[in-house]
Each structure stands twice: as structure tokens, then as C-alpha cells.
């Protein structure tokens, strides 16, 4: 690659940090899911135990997914 090629095609800087729109959507989804779950637990107390079990499994899966994504970015 010659010096002329580097001048005509400068390298783009690597993005720093997460995309703000993606972060906002993630926060919105988390708030809506937690709010909906809380509402169901309050209005239907018999569903509290099954919802808690699904939440525990979901938390474990989310943690495993987060670790996998963090290790892949290295």
C-alpha cells in the first residue's frame, strides 16, 4: 500500500462505548419486563413461584451470555 492510498482511505477510529440508542432500548425493555412481571405477581399471587423460578433461570442465562460476549470481544 502506498502513501497515496493511505491518504485517500483514512482509517476510521474504533467506536468507544455502547451505542446510546441500543442502551436506551435495552433499558426500556428491562423496565417493561420487570414492570409487567411485578404487575402479574401482584394481581395473580399464585403465579409468583413459577415466575420466580423462570426469573432465576433467566438470570443465569443472561449472566452466561454476558460472560460469553465479554470473552468474545477480547
**Tally of individual domains:** 1
Q: Choose one word for the global shape.
A: elongated
* Order of SSEs: HHH
Class inferred from helices and paired strands:
mainly alpha
Helix content: over 70%
Sheet with most strands: none
Mean pLDDT equals 84
Question: Multimeric state of these chains?
Answer: single chain
The helix tally amounts to 3
Give me the Rg, rounded.
21 Å
End-to-end gap: 28 Å
Poorly predicted tracts of residues: none
Number of strands: 0
Strand content: under 5%
Write a brief caption for the model:
With 74 residues, the chain is mainly alpha-helical. The chain contains 3 helices and no strands.
Task: Report on this structure.
- There is one protein chain.
- The two termini are 28 Å apart.
- This protein has helices at residues 3-8, 20-43, 48-72.
- With 74 residues, it is mainly α.
- It has one domain.
- The relative contact order is 0.05.
- The protein contains three helices and no strands.
- 74% of the residues lie in helices and 0% in strands.
Question: Can you tag this structure with a few keywords?
Answer:
single chain, mainly alpha, 74% helix
Helix-strand blueprint:
Layout: H1 3-8, H2 20-43, H3 48-72
Amino acid at each position: 500500500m502506498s502513501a497515496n492510498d493511505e491518504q485517500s482511505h483514512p482509517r476510521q477510529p474504533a467506536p468507544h462505548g455502547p451505542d446510546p440508542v441500543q442502551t436506551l432500548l435495552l433499558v426500556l425493555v428491562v423496565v417493561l419486563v420487570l414492570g409487567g412481571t411485578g404487575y402479574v405477581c401482584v394481581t395473580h399471587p399464585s403465579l409468583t413461584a413459577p415466575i420466580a423460578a423462570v426469573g432465576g433461570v433467566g438470570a443465569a442465562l443472561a449472566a452466561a451470555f454476558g460472560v460469553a460476549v465479554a470473552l468474545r470481544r477480547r
